[in-house]
């Protein structure tokens, strides 16, 4: 079970971006809707809305349809559900990168590259990446909890369920480690770096593409591990 557990750390590193780089990106976008100003950190609400939306959709619509093809009571196995979540996380980071590319293009067109000011592109363009992250969360985190509870030895179910939650904290550490490496290597020789104080000068999109690539590699490793995993016999 350990390799399956380890692949959850990279997903948690992607999930950590919701409270870090997504907020930094939002701070450099237009946060006004009429006379109302949207705090960038508040967009995490759409992650919660996404979870509330996808849980009943998954249980009431997706599972019954999948059940007809897989002949499984839950529609998808826990491993399949986690794999779907990992795939969605790749799309999520790609969506964030595309939004950042457009933001940087607009900054260049308006000659705002050297100015640490918000670019006039609505922060609402971030909603898809939050929504996708919520969908990935529903598949991966819930599937992970079910997997560790069902597949762990009977006397170790509580411990294994707790281990699945440990990936969240390790993912945050991994996110910080990746950010440290990116900052170190991209600022060599006096270069501005991908993530500078002024994001209009940097390339936050490269960082998002890097995480998308790591997520894709993680998904491939997960697929290999999951295909070789032998299910525990029902006790």
UniProtKB/TrEMBL annotation:
<keyword id="KW-0472">Membrane</keyword>
<comment type="similarity">
    <text>Belongs to the major facilitator superfamily. Proton-dependent oligopeptide transporter (POT/PTR) (TC 2.A.17) family.</text>
</comment>
<protein>
    <submittedName>
        <fullName>Uncharacterized protein</fullName>
    </submittedName>
</protein>
<dbReference type="InterPro" id="IPR036259">
    <property type="entry name" value="MFS_trans_sf"/>
</dbReference>
<feature type="transmembrane region" description="Helical">
    <location>
        <begin position="79"/>
        <end position="99"/>
    </location>
</feature>
<dbReference type="InterPro" id="IPR000109">
    <property type="entry name" value="POT_fam"/>
</dbReference>
<dbReference type="GO" id="GO:0022857">
    <property type="term" value="F:transmembrane transporter activity"/>
</dbReference>
<dbReference type="Pfam" id="PF00854">
    <property type="entry name" value="PTR2"/>
</dbReference>
<feature type="transmembrane region" description="Helical">
    <location>
        <begin position="40"/>
        <end position="58"/>
    </location>
</feature>
<dbReference type="GO" id="GO:0016020">
    <property type="term" value="C:membrane"/>
</dbReference>
<feature type="transmembrane region" description="Helical">
    <location>
        <begin position="206"/>
        <end position="225"/>
    </location>
</feature>
<keyword id="KW-0812">Transmembrane</keyword>
<feature type="transmembrane region" description="Helical">
    <location>
        <begin position="161"/>
        <end position="186"/>
    </location>
</feature>
<feature type="transmembrane region" description="Helical">
    <location>
        <begin position="130"/>
        <end position="149"/>
    </location>
</feature>
<keyword id="KW-1133">Transmembrane helix</keyword>
